[in-house]
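This entry is retained here.
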Amino acid sequence: MRSFLFYLVVCSFFVSRCHAGCAEVDSLTEAVAGEGFLLGCISCKRREEVSARATVDWHFKPQQEEDFRHIFHYDHPAAAVLHEDFSDRLEWQGTLNGDVQIGAVYIQNVTFNDTGTYRCTFHRTLFLPLQLENVVVEKEVELTVVAVANRELTAVISEIVMYVLIVVLQLWLIVVMVHCYRKIWDEHEAREARRALKAQGLLLGSKENCDGVQAE
C-alpha cells in the first residue's frame, strides 16, 4: 500500500530534470501532524547503461539547531534507523536493488518536532569499463509540519468552478423547463383554438341547414 502511495506521490512532484528513464524531482515540503509523510529524494545516473551500486543516508537538523543527526542508512537490502527519535517511524520507500536512484523514506506519525532540514546523501560507485568512479550527491528538504493541511489554490479554484457550474446548470434546467412549459401551453392553446373554430364551423353549418329546411 505504501509502495503505491510512494509512486502516486512521486508522480505528483514537480519535475526538474530528466535523465533517460529517470526523473529527478523535488520532494513535497509540508507535512500534517499525526499523519504520514514521504520524504522524496531522487538521484539519477548520467549513463543508464553503466552498472552501479549506491547507498543512501538521511540526516536531520531540527529547527533552530546547528548540527545534523544521522537518522537513517540504506545499503541494499538492509535498512537501519539510527536515531531514537525516529525509531519505528521511518520506512524505506526507495529503489529495491543495489543500484539505488530513488532514496525516499516514509515518516509515520509526523510530529511538530520533525520540522527542520533533512539531508539525503547518495554514495554511488559507477562500474566503468576501465575503473571505478565514486560519486556523492546531496539533496536537502526543508520540512514544515502544520496542524491542518493548507488547501492549494488549484483545489480552491476547482471547487469554485464546480459550484459555479452547478448553479449554471440549475439555471439552464429552469430555463429549459420554462421553455418546454410555454411550448406545451402554446400547443394546448392552439389545439383549443382549433377545436373552437371547428365547433364554430359545425355550428354555422348546422344553422345553415336549419335555415334551408325552413325555406323549403
Observations:
- The radius of gyration is 37 Å.
